Amino acid sequence: MEPIITLRHLSKNYGEKQVLKDINLDIYPGQIIGYIGPNGAGKSTTVKILAGIIQDYTGDVTIGGMDLRKNVMEVKKMTGYIPELAELYDLLTAREYLSFIGKLYHLSDSVIEERSRRMLDSFGLLGNIDQRMDSFSKGMRQKVLLTSGLLHNPSIVILDEPLSGLDANTVIMVKELLQVLKQEGKTIFYSSHMMDVVEKVSDRIVLIDKGTIVANGTIDELRQNSNDSLEQIFSKLTAGEGYSHRADDFASALNDTQPGK
Amino acid sequence: MNKIFLKLVMLPSGLWRSMGADTEQLAAILDIRLKLDNRKPIPFGRQRTQKKERNNSVWLNMFIAALTGLVYIFTLATIKDRIFGLTLSFSFFLFMLTFMLITDFSNVLFDTRDKYIIVPRPVSDITIILSRLLHVFIYLFRIILPMSLPMWITLGVMDGWKSALLFPLPLILLACIAIFLVNCTYLLLLKLAKPERFKDIINYFQIAFSIVLFASGYLMRGMLNTSGNIEDLVNLDISKHSWVRFTPPYWLASFWSLLGFPVNLAGTQWSFILAIALPLLCLWLLVKYLSPQFARAIGGIDTVAAAEYAPAAQTKATGGKFYQKLANLMNKDEVAKAGFVITWLQTSRSRSFKMKVYPFFAYMPIYFVFLLTSEKHMSFKDAWDKATSPDNPSYLLLLYLSSFMLIRVLNYLTISDQYKSAWVYYATPVVIPGRVMSGAFKAMWVKFFLPLFILFAVFIVSVWGWPAIADVILALINVTLFAACMMRVSFRDLPFSMQEQMNQGGNRFLKSFIAMAIPSALGFGHYLAINILWLKLLFMVLSAILLWLVWDSYANTTWDAVRKTELE
Fold first, then answer.
1. Which of B306, B420, B425 lies closest to A135 in CB terms?
2. ipTM for this model
3. pLDDT of residue B312 exceeding 60
4. DSSP of B366-380, one letter per residue?
5. What are the extents of the domains in chain A?
């Protein structure tokens, strides 16, 4: 099978700082890829490159058989991006925002209307469709973002920390949604901090640290016959040794000094 | 400066402690509040800079207050009748102070971050209340002191130390009245409007206020010039305006009869008593009735959260709303429609956009009247009649003034506090960003410029008759060309995608200047051709062709061009 996403020698610098160093990765269609790594490892940068937002990288990115650099628009039509922070025009109502996004994908008004009503309904947000989003909670905004990213029925879904701010029931729903999307043959690139969720939903896990891939495989492959959880594997691989020391140091800062003047 | 204020209010810390406040916390809270004040943008005029942290806004505010204070010495120094002069000065002072407090206090009183930052900590209620009160007190002090300083000095110079010594007493009484008025206004506003709309209303209030200031500044100067006679003002006789003695500023001014300035009107002793009694009554009403009501009312401002928001009536059909119909009518491309709609909606709802743009609507006609009637040695009416006489093409001025309006709104087309939300254009398959931009431009043009222009056109045709219609059309094309040139050359950015910055590159400035010079030349050509119809028709065709060319280039702006503008 041909990979749907290929990264070859992908690097990215911000000034002096190199955030991605020679990333090589193949992703096959119909898979859920868990993309994990500590803060500042380069996760969001990778995601933004795949979404076509960052275009001045070095190396090659091929998506759906097309060179990303040469076919940004075609690739964007295939992909749906759901960003990490709920940056949206919150003076608009949910309906107005989705209609706006739908038009950017050249969807017809009736399709936008039908899809956004049904998708928001399944999130339990239909009653809020005509409310301005500045009165929305973080979770409600995240649901609108999820809807806006999937509105045009993309074949590749790129999620950057999609569960932040969602309540437990919605997290369960999104996890099931990911499975349904996968069964429909969609490829899901899932970047997150939440180890337990990544461990459960991903077909393959890619661990990135300081701009390079340090592990790539199924959860069983990563365990290497041990019984470690993903969290423990993560901690071992990302120089997390000594974290218990650091916690001790943190706590002793309180004990060693007396309150008051 | 803040350190001095803080030391001053913390001097009676024994008293605060006996009231049950924790003085260490009190000082810490006040210190933070004063620091925040210092970093706030100043209320008048200039916009906030994001790049450079503002550290001196307290000084700037005080300086502005002192400048406004200079206004009050004008009447004081020119009018011979001291009591009348003082009455007028106090009236202006009361007016300014009340308005400044109404617009400014909303920031102090409605800072709801307290609820998340201070309330969860072990801080007693009395400490929080006291910190608010002291903050308000410092705030008042910072406005009143510099604002009254010029008057104080003038009195001292004119009358000697006795007069200067007396001054603080009526000043304090005046402040009491002002606070009372502010409180009444707030309560009234809160009664009239839902709490969640309150911040909007305060903004409209600010807009109205700036218009009133602007209009009175321009028109008063015009009228003073045209009446031309300063003697009339100097010899204003209070006995001819006896209604004045029913106003509080007059009562306060009558204090000066203590120093031997005669009060011409009867009932001096009464005004004396009233001057003391009224502010005390205000204070009593404030403490006893208004403040508790007020506290309850503002408590509601942020607790009315999303849950209680009544959902807006669900509209089913899309394409049914007015702006959607317009969007469909004016744009063929779906992406352009999206640009049109988002611009229409954002500009209707963004508070900061309204604040920056709406006052401008009122400025336009005021400018016009001022420019036409500012001729010296002529009364306002004569100047107006002359300007609107059939053979005077002064309406060209009005037509081309409308370009300021268009430029103003377009200047804020690319700027937003929510500029980060513009990521959507980059993540969606927008092939030609120029389409979004062209839709956005059309929305601005249709929504803000066209109605004003039509209004002007109706006025012009009704005064100058139908022949002026050719000028109206030519001006419409020229002004649109003017704006399109400006956008094409210096603002090739996506709508609401940029952070507001004070210093734009010099390169940009130069480019906009050139972009504006060409159409200005067209406007001048229009003026020269005012009486030659065929030449006007020729200009119309030429301008239309030019507009089409510029527009085509703007509406086809590529991603590369957008990136280039971003880098500038």
1. B306
2. 0.73
3. no
4. HHHHHHHH--TTS-H
5. 5-231
